[in-house]
């Protein structure tokens, strides 16, 4: 019978309660942590001789618990206690290691009914910023073991437990064992243990340290799984230790061989997914002293194809056979070991290991930022669950931190909010090492001393809040200067002994603060007024040209160029305390509001928004200098400490996505779709050709096209927009940003951003409007819409391409032309795409054709009576889904 390994792994894990070991081996480099053990306590396990220490030095959160006494009796001492984590979403152990050393890392989880309730949890286990495994406890008396072979890239690792809402995370033991770097080599990635078996074992005992110098755990197997019989020897195997893998002698001294001497040894396992990659290690040793007329050699096949051979194992010496590259692409892996024609004896096998490949690709936070924030935490004794990587993964960054994420560089800390954190002493100099910091809030603490000059050197700092402390002395002149010129929002109020730049008189110091702060406030107001006048004058100059003469027509006069700054209290009034939500996105939540009798949309920045502050700035700056009937109008903004929001004109019919996806009862007619497409194209044309310098939107998609009460379309969300150089360059080299499915494949590969990147995205939107299908099909194949349309074009029937909800109520010629425009826009080669000006011209012709046909009564004509337009489409229409 061919065995399926997954069917008996659970039974094997139960065997961990029966461990046998010997002592007196070198534990150099071993890290053995018993979680939940009292601080400063140690012990030596009686079974293995391993020396364990408390976890208190590796984590500062969690609750120590002991397992039930009736379960304790059948388990080793390192799992008698555990650490549970009822508080916080992510709790992390920080363990110092030797960078570049290959480690076997093992986490053990024995519930042991420690809570007396038998609540069996499920939670995620992370290594650093990436998911390692999901831990699912199904029996309180059986250990769950997760094991990984990994080479740390830093001089520490973080082992993190993440609460996924399915019970309280806990852990019993963490063990690290250094391995030889010549072993378990992969092309890429780390190795997660899938299976490790002592084949042919007759003891039913799991062997580990004492027998295994690397403390691997070898699980016994029943030879019935192999249709095999046992072989064994009492002689030692590998007495010279020539094999770097060094499987234990006690494991290699037993083996299996087929009951039927002419039959093969067979085993198999099912893959988790066809994309899962595996490495296999099979260990062979001849344990029978062969006679002169005997021989044993065999070949190995994988899924019926030759894999290795012939192999003749050496007597009492291990040969380790392994896959030099990962196995992948199969649903099931069948191995067959069969004797060669010249062999007189059947094959044997002594031990086997199987690992799946784990990729840890998430960049961890810049080391300089990590060191700085760790020192800040230590200096102030911050009582927060600040554990693991400060920024990554994105969903679990430290409370009070925001970070920038760039595909090519490690995350950087840009936002630090320590308001009301009980800070005492001086402002820590370690803050100066957070060089990318944009927002710093130290308000509502008991900080003393002067405002340090190094804060002036943080060149990206845009908000500095030092209110309500006990700071003294002068505010550095550079900070005041930056505050006056508008590049820094500075708040220093309610520091009784703090005064402005220059000398501070000891006498009547408290009286000096008010006029100084008033002067600074006056200067700020004056600078804002000057800036507003300057901006108003700039709008009258030809720096941003209105290409479309109708671009300022039909604007609501109550919204015309208001663009004023609102206070947070005003926003509360406008939105009636944020009563009505219009939608949510990566930036934050959008609320409905009213300014006098005019409806508006208020988009508030979420403190947890990734790169939200940068996008907030980008959008304000751009919408203050561009005005067009097909771009959303910015009414104003709020920039008050952590409260940041944008106020737009209200778009009564929401976004285009809602209408195409069927969320709205109304089905857009063919004419509506063409008008909306033309409106959006005109908005992009204005950005590309009407603005000097040109602007590239970078995130054109259906959710960023908004519709007013008359279904006129306007482009929205300019947080990712880029200004294009005017020095004759053909592209901007930038980190790729955008939305999968809409992302220009050429830009994705080269990082070269051009106006044609927007053209590609617009082409995808146009295809969505034509077909009513999403950019990427919600199916396992994840087919891109351009691939689907390209396939359908070969059939030549436009009815199968156009949205079936239109019930063929469209003009055939108009539809063919719209498809032609869209497919030209999504050409993988940017040089073959039209400009937005060309697309606008074509769409207007397309719309004119439709309108004319409607008036002539040809709506819905079939292809039998209409001559199909010859399409000038290339065959290069197969972009990959991004």
Salient structural properties:
882 residues, alpha+beta, Jelly Rolls, Leucine-rich repeat, LRR (right-handed beta-alpha superhelix), eleven-stranded mixed sheet
Task: Describe what is shown at a glance.
The chain is an alpha+beta fold and 882 residues long. The chain contains 15 helices and 48 strands. The protein is globular and about 100 Å long.
Strand count, sense and closure of the main sheet? Answer: 11 strands, mixed
By secondary-structure content and strand pairing, the structural class works out as alpha+beta
Distance between the termini: 45 Å
Number of strands: 48
Q: Considering the protein shown, what is the CATH homologous superfamily of the largest domain?
A: Transferase(Phosphotransferase) domain 1
Low-confidence stretches: 6-24, 506-523, 532-562, 855-882
Please give a structural write-up.
- The protein is α+β, with helices and mostly antiparallel strands and 882 residues long.
- The chain folds into 5 domains: 23-179, Galactose-binding lectin (Jelly Rolls, Sandwich), CATH 2.60.120; 196-203 and 221-358, Jelly Rolls, CATH 2.60.120; 367-529, Ribonuclease Inhibitor (Leucine-rich repeat, LRR (right-handed beta-alpha superhelix)), CATH 3.80.10; 557-649, 2-Layer Sandwich (Phosphorylase Kinase, domain 1), CATH 3.30.200; 656-855, Transferase(Phosphotransferase), domain 1.
- The protein contains 15 helices and 48 strands.
- The strands form 12 sheets. Strands 3, 4, 5, 9, 12, 15, 16, 18, 22, 25 and 27 form an 11-stranded mixed sheet that branches.
- Strand 38 and strand 39 (588-595) form a beta hairpin.
- The longest helix has 32 residues, at 509-540.
- The protein is globular and about 100 Å long.
């Amino acid at each position: 019978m061919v065995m399926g390994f997954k069917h008996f792994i659970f039974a094997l894990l139960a065997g961990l309660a029966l461990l046998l070991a010997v002592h007196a081996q070198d534990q150099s480099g071993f890290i053995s942590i018993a979680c939940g053990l009292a601080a400063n306590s140690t012990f030596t396990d009686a079974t293995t001789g391993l020396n364990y220490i408390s976890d208190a030095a590796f984590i500062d959160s969690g609750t120590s618990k002991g397992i039930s006494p009736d379960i304790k009796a059948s388990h080793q001492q390192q799992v008698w206690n555990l650490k549970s984590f009822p508080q916080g979403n992510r709790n992390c152990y920080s363990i110092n290691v030797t960078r570049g050393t290959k480690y076997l890392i093992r986490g053990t989880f024995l519930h042991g009914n420690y809570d007396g309730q038998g609540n069996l949890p499920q939670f995620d286990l992370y290594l650093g910023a990436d998911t390692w495994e999901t831990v699912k406890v199904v029996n309180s008396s059986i250990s769950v073991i997760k094991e990984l072979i990994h080479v740390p890239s830093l001089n520490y690792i973080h082992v993190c437990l993440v609460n996924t809402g399915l019970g309280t995370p806990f852990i019993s033991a963490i063990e690290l064992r250094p391995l030889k770097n010549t072993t378990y080599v992969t092309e890429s990635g780390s190795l997660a243990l899938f299976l490790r078996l002592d084949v042919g074992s007759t003891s039913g005992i799991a062997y580990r340290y004492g027998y295994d110098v690397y403390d691997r755990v070898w699980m016994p197997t029943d030879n019935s799984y192999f249709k095999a019989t046992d072989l064994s020897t009492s002689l030692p195997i590998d007495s010279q230790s020539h094999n770097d893998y060094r499987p234990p002698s006690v494991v290699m001294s037993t083996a299996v061989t087929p009951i039927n001497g002419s039959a093969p040894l067979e085993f198999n396992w099912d893959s988790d997914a066809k994309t899962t990659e595996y490495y296999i290690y099979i260990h062979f040793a001849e344990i029978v002293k062969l006679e002169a007329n005997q021989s044993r050699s065999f070949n190995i096949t994988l899924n019926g194809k030759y894999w290795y051979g012939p192999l003749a194992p050496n007597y009492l010496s291990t040969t380790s056979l392994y896959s030099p590259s990962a196995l992948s692409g199969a649903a099931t892996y069948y191995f067959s070991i069969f004797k060669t024609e010249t062999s007189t004896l059947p094959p044997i096998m002594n031990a086997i290991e199987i690992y799946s490949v784990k990729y840890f690709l998430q960049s961890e936070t810049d080391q300089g930022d990590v060191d700085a924030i760790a020192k800040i935490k230590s200096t102030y004794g911050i009582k927060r669950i600040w554990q693991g990587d400060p920024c990554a993964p994105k969903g679990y960054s430290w409370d009070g931190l925001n970070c920038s994420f760039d595909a090519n560089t490690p995350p950087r800390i840009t936002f630090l909010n320590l308001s009301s954190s009980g800070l005492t002493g001086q402002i820590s100099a370690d803050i100066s090492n957070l060089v990318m910091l944009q927002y710093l809030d130290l308000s509502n603490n008991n900080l003393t001393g002067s405002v340090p000059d190094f804060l002036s050197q943080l060149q990206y700092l845009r908000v500095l809040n030092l209110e309500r402390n006990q700071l003294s002395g002068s505010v550095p002149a550079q900070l005041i200067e930056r505050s006056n010129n508008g590049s820094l929002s500075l708040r220093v109020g309610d520091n009784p002994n703090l005064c402005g730049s220059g000398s501070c008189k000891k006498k009547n110091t408290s009286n000096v603060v008010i006029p100084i702060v008033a002067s600074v406030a006056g200067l700020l107001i004056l600078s804002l007024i000057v800036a507003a006048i300057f901006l108003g004058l700039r709008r009258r100059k030809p720096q941003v040209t209105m290409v479309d003469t109708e671009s300022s027509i039909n604007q609501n006069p109550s919204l015309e160029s208001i663009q004023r700054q609102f206070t947070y209290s005003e926003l509360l009034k406008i939105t009636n305390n944020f009563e009505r939500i219009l939608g949510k996105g990566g930036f934050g939540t959008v609320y409905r509001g009213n300014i006098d009798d005019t409806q508006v949309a208020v988009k508030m920045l979420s403190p947890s928004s990734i790169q939200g502050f940068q996008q907030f700035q980008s959008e304000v700056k751009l919408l203050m200098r561009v005005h067009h009937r097909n771009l959303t109008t910015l009414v104003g903004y709020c920039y008050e400490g952590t409260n940041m929001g944008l106020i737009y004109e209200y778009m009564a019919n929401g976004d285009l996505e809602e209408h195409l996806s069927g969320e709205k009862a109304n089905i857009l007619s063919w004419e509506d779709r063409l008008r909306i497409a033309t409106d959006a194209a005109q908005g992009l044309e204005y950005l590309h050709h009407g603005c000097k310098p040109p602007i590239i939107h970078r995130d054109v998609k259906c959710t960023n096209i908004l519709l007013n009460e008359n279904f006129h379309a306007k482009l929205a969300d300019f947080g990712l927009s880029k200004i294009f150089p005017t020095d004759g360059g053909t592209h901007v080299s930038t980190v790729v940003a955008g939305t999968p499915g809409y992302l220009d494949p050429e830009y994705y590969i080269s990082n070269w951003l051009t106006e044609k990147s927007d053209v590609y995205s617009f082409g995808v939107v146009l295809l969505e409007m034509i077909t009513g299908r999403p950019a990427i099909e919600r199916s396992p194949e994840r087919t891109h819409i351009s691939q689907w349309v390209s396939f359908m074009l070969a059939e030549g029937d436009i009815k199968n391409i156009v949205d079936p909800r239109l019930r063929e109520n469209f003009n055939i010629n108009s539809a063919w032309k719209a498809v032609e425009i869209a497919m030209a826009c999504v050409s993988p080669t940017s040089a073959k795409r039209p400009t937005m000006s060309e697309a606008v011209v074509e769409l207007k012709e397309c719309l004119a054709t439709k309108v004319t046909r409607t008036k002539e009564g040809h709506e819905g004509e079939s292809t039998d009576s209409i001559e199909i337009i010859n399409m000038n489409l290339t065959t290069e229409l197969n972009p990959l889904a991004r």
